[in-house]
Write a structure and sequence with these properties.
Layout (H helix, E strand, L loop, with lengths): L4 H8 L34 E4 L2 H4 L3 E3 L4 E3 L1 H16 L4 E2 L7 E2 L1 E12 L2 E11 L5 E12 L7 H22 L10 E2 L21 E2 L5 E4 L11 E4 L2 E4 L1 E6 L4 E5 L21 E6 L11 E6 L21 H9 L6
Parallel strand pairs: 1-4, 1-6
Antiparallel strand pairs: 2-3, 5-9, 6-7, 7-8, 10-11, 11-15, 12-13, 14-15, 16-17
Helix pairs in contact: 3-4
Length: 334
């Protein structure tokens, strides 16, 4: 969902100073699009819908115009408004919720730009209570960007694309609360069926830290991820998050398998100024060759900025070492 700045600047160069767009009413369909009279509207079927979190939080800054552009906010609000207009009891997918639904709509949004228009292309799949795909397709709608700082174009394009999806669902499946009884608990949904595993939101490098198969990686790699997998050689494996610290930007994930080789922690936890450090990773995955990159350096400082939460000079209740100890409590066995 990241939009190349050059494309975006080209798209808005003639429209950024345009007049304010008007938000479309959620219960007003495009011309020529109708819901069958035999279908109940608003519909009482209990449904949930899934949007990738990374897509709903996407934003970027245009230096030339000094504005923040938030297509993610427009997407989230546009989809929610459209869904609520036709399914008042609908809710956004929550993998921790025990709420039961009769239908689950899995959405995969994609932005593109054409001659000053914001184009929303939305692939979708509809799953029943047995997690069987009973309807799928793709809808698209474009809206003139106008004043880009208002994000109205993103809202309108998202709302319209969602309306087209909902009309298809209503007309083809003719759902009722009886026909699609709420029997699927959101917590029981196989999240692997919702995400696009061929296009990961983020990638990072991890290493084994004990013989139990737990790994250490950067916490930001796991942000916005509904499914986390590790690749070892050519094999993909499901992993679970054991511990995570935004303060340290570190996370421990569990591969649930024993390993012969791992990198142990120092028992005393001490390090020395000038010590050699070796960094091994896989940066720019998908662009660079699938082989590790190695960089050598040294510890240039033992402290961070004054007052920083991760700095040893910061006077807080928990020191950096204590926080690290809490984080690795479940991950390290001496």
């Amino acid at each position: 969902m990241k939009i190349p700045a050059a494309i975006m600047m080209l798209a808005v160069s003639l429209t950024v100073a345009g007049c304010q767009s008007t938000k479309i009413k959620a219960n007003k369909l495009p011309k020529g699009v109708k819901v069958s009279k035999s279908v109940e509207v608003p519909n009482t079927t209990q449904i949930a819908y899934y949007l990738p979190k990374s897509a709903t939080e996407h934003r970027f800054y245009l230096d030339n115009w000094n504005v923040w552009v938030e297509p993610g906010k427009g997407l989230k609000n546009g989809v929610e408004a459209a869904v609520k207009a036709y399914f008042p009891n609908a809710l956004a997918f929550d993998p921790k919720s025990d709420t039961q639904v009769g239908l689950l709509i899995d959405m995969e949004p994609k932005w593109s730009f054409d001659s000053g228009d914001a184009v929303m292309t939305m692939k979708y799949r509809v799953l029943d209570a047995n997690q069987k795909v009973i309807r799928e397709g793709e809808k698209e709608y474009d809206n003139a960007i106008g004043n880009i700082s208002s994000n109205t174009a993103f809202y309108n394009a998202s709302l319209r694309a969602t309306q087209l999806i909902l009309v298809d669902v209503l007309n083809k499946l003719q759902p009722t609360a009886t026909k699609f009884a709420a029997e699927l608990a959101l917590a029981d949904v196989n999240t692997n069926d919702l995400v696009n595993l061929e296009k990961p939101v983020s990638t990072g490098t991890g290493f084994y830290i004990n013989e139990n198969g737990q790994l250490l990686t950067a916490a930001h790699v796991l942000d916005n991820c509904l499914v986390t997998k590790m690749k070892l050689g050519d094999e993909m494996q499901q992993v679970s998050i054991t511990a995570k610290s935004a303060l340290l930007d570190l996370a421990v994930i569990d591969s649930h398998q024993q390993v012969e080789q791992h990198l142990p922690f120092r028992i005393d936890g001490k390090f020395h100024l000038g010590e050699t450090v070796t960094n091994v990773g896989y940066p720019l995955q998908g662009l660079l060759a699938a082989s590790p990159n190695l960089t050598r350096g040294n510890i240039s400082s033992k402290t961070a900025l004054k007052g920083a939460m991760g700095s040893s000079s910061s006077r807080r209740q928990f020191s950096l070492a204590q926080v690290a100890g809490l984080l690795f409590l479940r991950a390290v066995n001496y």
